[in-house]
Amino acid sequence: MTALAKGASAAALTGTAATGGIYFGTDLFKNENKTAISSLIKNTNPEKRLITSKGVGDDVWKKAYKAYREANKDNEKDVWGLKDWTKPNDPIVETNATEEFISKCDSNSKVEVSNKDDLLYKQVLAYCTRDTLVSDLISEGTTGKKLLDKNASDSDQTSGWQAAWKVYRTQNSSKGAGQDPWGLESWDTKKDKDELPNNYKDKCVEHANKPAYKLDDENYRNVLAWCTK
Fold first, then answer.
1. Where are the beta strands (DSSP E) in 74-153?
2. 13 pLDDT exceeds 50?
3. CA–CA dist 63, 59 (Å, integer)
4. Which string of DSSP letters, residue by residue, matches 6-27?
5. Cβ distance 97 to 173 under 8 Å?
6. What pLDDT, in 10s, does the model give residues 135-163?
7. What global pTM score does this model have?
8. DSSP per-residue codes, 81-97
9. What are phi and psi of 34, to 5 degrees?
10. CA 173 to chain centre
11. Which of 27, 167, 216, 218 is the least buried, fewest Cβ under 10 Å from its Cβ?
């Protein structure tokens, strides 16, 4: 190979040739495997879930919007170029998110990126997600179980609560007063009765809304056994 040919080959590999290099680099990007940010979060950061609610006043959106404003508090223009952006002057507190911010999270989550090191991926992860909860693992799982509804009063739900309570009683029958896992009211007098303790359903709601992303998480396994049908 001549010196000229060698030089041309090197230029092509580094993408520095005036025309051939640019075309070569474009082909590389076209062939690169990319994944939507929403899918990448599921696989790479299972401890997080994209916020899917649309209410600007939802607590999860308030927290997310606060994080976004804190990260951009020193910028005259925010990183996502929100039309309603104004640089914060006062200490940043939780406030309602904006519809534009929620929409931006949604559209950015659909963008395809190469990997978790992509800047936009990191931004979506930081500003548009919440913790994965026990309730997520149950609703998305393959057990066929569903969380019982605290407020439902139909016969199916009632029998479901009775069955779940029986499992709790059976698994903890040897435990004395104040020793059951969830510290239920009047455990020592209720554990031999079919009637649910007053705070049993509340405990189910409380524990179902705790963070968890692994199937061997003790709290997840407990809620699955004691609060589902």
1. 112-113, 129-131
2. no
3. 6
4. HHHHHHHHHT-STTHHHHHHHH
5. no
6. 999 999 999 999 999 999 899 999 999 99
7. 0.82
8. --TT-----SPP-----
9. -125, 155
10. 35
11. 216
Residue 121: how many other CB atoms lie within 10 Å: 22
Alpha-helical runs (H) found in 45-89: 59-71
| Contact between 195 and 112 (Cβ < 8 Å) | no
- Residue given tokens 């929403």 in the structure block: 38
Summarised one tens digit per residue, pLDDT across range 38-69 is 999 999 999 999 999 999 999 999 999 999 99
- For residues 162-183, one letter each, b for 16 or more C-beta atoms within 10 angstroms of the residue's C-beta and e for the rest, the string is eebbeebbeebeeeeeeebebe
The DSSP line for 180-215 is STT--TTHHHHTTSSSPPTTHHHHHHHHHTSB--ST
CA distance 17 to 39: 36
DSSP 219: H
CB 44 within 8 A of CB 213: no
CA triplet 66, 70, 73: central angle to 5 degrees? 130
Kindly state the average pLDDT of the residues 210-226.
98
Tell me the pLDDT band of 220, cut-offs 50, 70 and 90: very high
CA pair distance 135, 198, nearest whole angstrom: 22
Distance CA 178, CA 51 (A): 37
